[in-house]
Amino acid sequence: MSTTDHSARSGSPATPGGTATATATVDVDRSDPAYRAWLKEAVRKVQADANRSADTHLLRFPLPERWGIDLYLKDESTHPTGSLKHRLARSLFLYGLCNGWIRPDKPVIEASSGSTAVSEAYFAKLIGVPFIAVMPRTTSPEKCRLIEFHGGRCHFVDDSRTMYEESAALAERTGGHYMDQFTYAERATDWRGNNNIAESMYQQLRLERYPEPAWIVATAGTGGTSATIARYVHYMQHDTRICVADPENSCFFDGWTHHDPHATADCGSRIEGIGRPRMEPSFVPGAVDRMMKVPDAASVAAVRALETAIGRKAGGSTGTGLWSAFKIVAEMVGQGRTGSVVTLICDPGDRYLDKYYSDDWLAAQGLDIAPYTAAVESFLATGAWPE
Predict the structure, then answer these.
(1) pLDDT for 103-134, tens place per residue?
(2) Which residue, among 333, 106, 339, 308, has the nearest Cα to 209 in the 3D structure?
(3) Residue 275: strand, helix, or coil
């Protein structure tokens, strides 16, 4: 079962420009004592959320002991808002607050296919500002419900490629702030450490038999997570390699492979939360070692295999990363290498019961997961990757 895949050891071009970004109009006196008091309290509340939150678990995927390889999943679904994006949203709110962009009573607007919006709605409610999510009309109803549960409002677009411009225009009309995760994700997070996701992984692996993983596999929506992990690995001088798994209907793989910062895709990704129609500014191609293009049916097959193996449902993006991790493990087995591989549980599967766990949805999308399910079963039984 082939997966398009390229590796490199040299750098790739930096990210492109062309981002539609709108920050808030300056209409508040930054030295006003009332504003400064509000800002201090808002920052305190966001930092207190981090202080209350325990670290997320590092789960083991069962593999045959004789292979000498350990596969782990960093379970980001246990955050208060149920996804990896909780870390990002917290960082973006601190970044926006400390830059003076988020102001009392003015809305925060975000272009998001779901999980980031859920987490940002949570933080907006925490500090008492309105929140509006600009998202494709095809976003799962459960994610929309969660956004509204946290006090946010959903603003739908028919073409996911117009999310950026509509978000910027909405910020202009309302006097609010367009958070723009796709530009600021890679810079809002402290990639040198400070309990970021990469530092957490290495701390949790410290007592394992292979404490320095051979590979960490991430998926890319903004690209911020892969940038944070890769930069941390290089900064700490680890030998770990970074692989980014990309779904169908996303341009990251083509842009990285062909060194094309202007690569685009014609339609939106069916794997919610990852895959983009353009090369996002927060995706840092030169930091990663390898990319794989993963068929959407393979992502669904892998995430269903995860449930069979550990009894946990997860979102489709988890399946994209897990499929690539399986392939890397098979390569290591074939080469007689031992070591560890880490990937992510990005969000819970209960948000997608009507999609990735629905055979009717798969049929409507023309997705046949049977050959990919057979490939996973064959790999788990033999350690070899089906051709």
Answers:
(1) 999 999 999 877 899 999 999 999 999 999 99
(2) 339
(3) coil
